[in-house]
Write a structure and sequence with these properties.
By secondary structure, the chain is mainly alpha-helical. It has two domains: about 1-20 and about 120-340, Rhopdopsin 7-helix transmembrane proteins; about 25-100, no CATH class. It has helices at about 1-20, 30-40, 70-75, 80-100, 120-150, 160-185, 190-215, 220-240, 245-270, 275-290, 290-295, 305-340; strands at about 45, 45-50. A two-stranded antiparallel ribbon has the order 1-2. The protein starts with a helix and ends with a helix.
């Protein structure tokens, strides 16, 4: 949760930085000449690419089906233009390094080195670890409620936010899954799935923050709070995917939802007597410090680990603490409800 909260604060800043830096590398005349030559000849130096024998749809013009590019290569959409840009970028960066110049961005991205066709291997691996951490947290929460804490006579948990946290866990795992896919290969489809998953998680997290912090237990009241927010988030996701993928508008929406829920949790942590409120503060403050990596945005070390990848690394322990707080909250509320029953 914390990663989606704090990124909302700095998303606009990072976006503007990327806009200003996006054309530094690809505006280089030597890079442009290399790409143009590669697209004509299919080669960069002594490296030649079979992709350049195929158009962007993966099939040779007027060719039989058996000359089509294999599906296992086509799914990543590494076409002639992508390979030309990638290897021209690598060669140009070697030349810049020999001259003592630092890396620059190409088409809005730092010069990463592929590993088995994976575009940003460190971010993919760390997104996968975050996914594993979310699964571990959700599974331990499930085990706690169903096997360690007392249950009602109807075999349901006393904790009144069980279903909501289960949904949150599934949305979190979904978000990190598409984050890993997006960092593996940045194309239009993976970008939309990653952004849509993040917005869905942010929207539901806002609902959850309101319901838990204000201790909304009545089902009708929960529906009244959730319905307009669910409608807005759904409409926003449909707008991004089927009408216009507006980065600026999406950033504003994420900022509002992120700031709102962060303030709710922070204020609740300050006024509540919850025994594990220190964990909530740790997540809030730690997440804020971790986001300094996103502001700094340094180029990838050895072409693999950049500031964004390190930010993904910091969210792993914070996610563990967050799920620990959720489990403590379940134990705390269950104990209070049992006291009232007795």
């Amino acid at each position: 949760m914390v990663d989606r909260y704090w990124i909302a604060f700095f998303a606009v800043f990072v976006y503007l930085v990327r806009v200003f830096e996006a054309s530094v590398g690809d505006a280089d005349p030597l890079y442009r000449a290399c790409v143009e030559q590669c697209e004509k000849t299919g080669c960069v130096g002594e490296r030649c690419f079979p992709h350049c024998k195929f158009p962007s749809d993966g099939a040779v013009v007027d060719s039989p089906w058996y000359l089509q590019e294999p599906l296992y290569l086509r799914w990543k959409q590494w076409d002639c233009q992508s390979d030309c840009r990638y290897y021209c970028m690598l060669d140009r960066e070697k030349e810049r390094e020999a001259l003592g110049n630092g890396p620059v961005k190409y088409h809005g991205k730092w010069p990463f080195k592929r590993v088995y066709g994976i575009q940003e291997p460190a971010s993919v691996a760390l997104s996968a670890l975050n996914l594993a951490m979310q699964f571990h947290g959700w599974l331990s929460f499930f085990i706690l409620l169903n096997y360690k804490l007392p249950l009602k006579p109807n075999k349901k948990a006393y904790y009144e936010y069980t279903c909501l946290w289960h949904i949150y866990g599934l949305l979190s795992m979904n978000s990190w899954f598409w984050s890993a896919v997006f960092h593996s290969r940045d194309v239009d489809l993976t970008e939309k799935l990653d952004y849509s998953s993040a917005v869905a998680l942010l929207g539901f997290s806002l609902i959850l923050a309101i319901l838990r912090s204000f201790n909304v237990r009545v089902e009708a009241a929960r529906v009244m709070v959730s319905a307009p927010l669910l409608a807005f988030v759904t409409t926003h996701i449909l707008y991004l995917n089927f009408y216009k993928f507006d980065y600026g508008w999406n950033m504003k929406v994420c900022v509002v939802m992120g700031v709102a829920q962060l303030l709710i949790w922070a204020i609740w942590a300050g006024v509540t007597r919850h025994p594990s409120r220190w964990k909530l503060w740790t997540v809030v403050v730690g997440g804020g410090l971790a986001m300094l990596l996103e502001i700094y945005d340094f180029p990838p070390y050895e072409g693999f680990v950049d500031a964004h990848a390190l930010w993904h690394a910091t969210t792993i322990p914070l996610s563990y603490i967050w799920w620990s707080f959720i489990k403590d909250d379940a134990e705390f509320q269950t104990a209070n409800l049992l006291k009232k029953v007795k």
